Amino acid sequence: MTVLSSHASADLLRKVTLDGLVVLAAPAPSDAAATIRALCAAEGWSAVETATSDATAWAASARKTSLVVVTGPDPAFILATVTAVRRSTGSSLAVLADLASSDRMKVLSAGADLVLPDTLDPGELRFHFIALLRRAADTWEPQVRYLASGPLVIDLWARECALADKPLHLSPTEFQLLLFLMRHPRRALPMNKIIQRVWQSRSYQGQMNAARIAVSRLRAKLDAGGEHVPFIRSVRGVGYEFLGPVIEFGDGANENLGTELGNLRLSVTVLKIAEVLRTRPLREAAQFCVDAVVETAGGNAGAIFHQAGGVIELFAERGHPEEYCAFLRQGVGVHTRSVVHTLDLRQPTQIDDITRLAKISGTVRIMTAHGFRSYLYVPLVAGGRTWGGLRLASRTRRPFDPAMTTFCSAVGAMLSLTLPAPCQSDPR
Q1: Phi, psi (deg, nearest 5) at residue 92
Q2: The pTM is what?
Q3: C-beta of residue 407 within 8 angstroms of C-beta of residue 390
Q4: The sheet that has 21-25: what strands, in order across it?
Q5: What averages of pLDDT result for each successive group of 10 residues across the chain (428 residues)?
Q6: C-alpha neighbours within 13 Å on the C-beta side of residue 73
Q7: What is the DSSP letter of 184?
Q8: Vertex 201, ends 196 and 205: CA angle to 5°?
């Protein structure tokens, strides 16, 4: 057996390079933050610094991120930041703080990969970080939002999964397992590799039973979707294989081919909507538009609102909580500050954080209670006056990309051309 000298070992460690950012979350200046900053500079790692949980989650998802480091004296800040980051990225995540045992367990359960004391020697800290980065799986690609295989879709930004347009409720372990299998489709993956990547463990025998149970539960949930499509098969003596082809798409995914296919898909959808608006009753055509926008733009919910007699009514919708629909059925008067502001908008508008509107809007309160966080609003104008609006809602705080905004604007423009002027009779 060859024994490496300390010099050779250090040389190997220095060859670990990052293809993504280091995001440092620190609410205030501290010695720990200064140590991490100096380490990044010495290693040549590109770093950005943030001071809030939301800013950290955004920074970790806006560009490819290799490592997120959270530090600070407040356990609540650390837990909130780890939780927020894990909603948007699977990048390596380390916490550097003096935490009680109970707080350490909460932070690890929320998704931290490593929790270290903030008084750790800088040299030892470097070894911990490099070991974590070397063992990390592929860093998350921010330009890829979705992994899709037939009716099965994973939303990487929202950390959600859907089967045939219905939410598929997975545990964190089941989600990571499915994600790993879909990132390596049509390959028989050995059990030890699955355990290493999903459970972050090299104790293969100790985790074997837990892995088999997790795969069994995941397969049962996929089968319960009623699609009768086998997604995962057992490979005797090896492990498991994800059977179907997997397509990656989102902002800039497979830029050349993805853009061409995306533009073609949008063009075909626009033509279908135009035909439906020409041949079907307005209410039916409006529902078709909402369905098409939600499916194409990747929103979680969509609606068309109509202003009639001083009241806002829900003209067509998809994906909203029943509580929200019931609230709108009662009629929302055109007098609240949020509603008046919405009706005054004459161009597409994105609101990347609707939570600040919850205090003044009952509909927003309901939506935020069900996890919705951002809106894209397109006004509908007929006869030079506001008729209503087309609204797309998402559970992420990410804006829709320009292509999708343009698509929704085009749908809104086509709808506006078919609408009766507000002074005419109610279009039912």
Answers
A1: -55, 140
A2: 0.41
A3: no
A4: 47-50, 21-25, 65-71, 92-96, 114-116
A5: 40 55 90 91 86 83 80 94 82 91 91 90 88 61 66 82 87 91 88 86 76 93 77 91 77 41 64 89 93 80 84 88 85 52 58 76 86 86 84 76 78 88 52
A6: 4
A7: S
A8: 90
